[in-house]
Design goal:
Length: 223
């Protein structure tokens, strides 16, 4: 029985002009995860990731901390949805920068509403795939891993949307549960699935073993 380790990217640059890059904290989180695994003798047989900059930077930090890993298979099927396009589809008026707690909460309330409508086929945000197409990209990556890497250790670096979609598929969750899972995945969090030729099974969800000490207590982030 193999294990698939799904890792959400480190903290990105929420509220900045370019979200798709790690913050200094995000770089530290990724490096620390790699160091944690190296301390425990972890060796990966295969690596998968999305193609976004925050995925590349997270994987680079993990590999640096590990001291090496196989060349990654990069696939757009593991890329995140466009949250701004989703929000614009339900709230066309410009929003203020989410730089206060209330604006932050308002941003994510709109996002959850937009996700629900997108998944139900009510809205079709500009330049975005349908929900079915998005989910199919995640499913294709999982299917390849299941058929190719049963019995092996596989690292997958992606975002909250694809990871919650993967977990939702494995557990058969309703759309509202998948959205709730999405909103709770923390930066650099690890979820584990067992891999067999017939199926993937969830073992752990949204864990931060590399930050589970007093020294790293203030490294826990969500955005």
């Amino acid at each position: 029985m193999g294990t698939l380790y799904l890792v959400r990217h480190g903290q990105a640059s929420f509220g900045a002009d370019n979200y798709d890059q790690l913050s200094p904290m995000g770089h530290r989180q990724a490096l620390r995860l790699g160091e944690f695994w190296r301390e425990r003798g972890m060796v990966f047989d295969a690596v998968y990731s999305g193609t976004l900059r925050r995925h590349d930077e997270t994987l680079a930090g993990i590999v640096q901390g590990l001291g090496g890993a196989p060349q990654a298979t990069r696939t757009p099927g593991l890329n995140e949805y466009d949250s701004l396009a989703l929000i614009h589809a339900v709230h066309p008026e410009p929003l203020e920068r989410p730089d206060t707690p209330e604006r932050y909460r308002h941003h994510f309330r709109l996002l959850c509403d937009a996700l629900a409508q997108w998944m139900a086929g009510v809205i079709s945000p500009v330049d975005m795939p349908s929900w079915d197409e998005f989910a199919a990209g995640v499913h294709a990556a999982l299917d390849e891993i299941r058929h190719t890497h049963a019995g092996r250790k596989v690292l997958l670096v992606s975002s909250g949307g694809p990871i919650s979609t993967a977990v939702g598929e494995v557990l058969g969750t309703a759309p509202e549960v998948t959205i709730a899972l999405n909103m709770r995945i923390r930066n650099s969090a690890v979820s584990e699935m067992s891999i067999s030729p017939k199926r993937l099974m969830l073992q752990t969800f949204n864990t931060l073993p590399h930050l589970n000490d007093i020294e790293h207590a203030d490294w826990l982030t969500h955005a």
